[in-house]
Design a protein that fits this description.
The protein contains 4 helices and no strands. It has about 150 residues and is an all-alpha fold.
Length: about 150
């Protein structure tokens, strides 16, 4: 096995580790019926986010390293487009998702009733809208990586 093939293996495993849990993070919290269930769902979601961060970091590092080993990749449209989309998706975290998740975290800590407040639905709707866009970006990246259309 060449070093490049080893990186490719790490890249594929990182995609599974990083993107897989990311696709179910919305679903986990949408099934909660009580505030206790919602708090627990967000705890699980937070734990899954660690996998997303580690996998995403390894994904970027392995992908760029493969490009450094085979510089012609930087001339391939699918590679450059995937890289740009990935960087945009990474920026979603601190720029778009974090500011929309902070009010939810505050609500989860401060709300004492077991009934989920209507305010949560509004806040979650705003957050999940952008998470779905990010998931769509990741799906496009996967298609580009598999098909290499240009």
């Amino acid at each position: 096995m060449t070093f490049y093939n080893f990186l490719l293996l790490i890249h594929v495993f990182s995609a599974i580790l990083g993107m897989g849990p990311g696709f179910v993070m919305i679903y986990i919290v949408t099934k909660a019926k009580t505030m206790a269930e919602l708090k627990h769902a967000y705890l699980i979601r937070n734990r899954l986010h660690h996998f997303v961060m580690v996998g995403g970091t390894l994904l970027l590092l392995s992908g760029v390293t493969m490009g450094a080993i085979r510089p012609y990749l930087f001339q391939m449209g699918w590679y450059v487009t995937s890289l740009v989309l990935f960087i945009i998706a990474l920026a979603f975290g601190p720029v778009i998702l974090s500011p929309r998740s902070k009010p939810i975290k505050i609500l989860l800590k401060s709300h004492n009733d077991d009934k989920i407040p209507e305010e949560y639905d509004v806040l979650a709707g705003r957050l999940f809208f952008f998470e779905r866009i990010e998931n769509l970006i990741f799906l496009i990246i996967i298609v580009l990586m598999v098909l290499k259309p240009f």
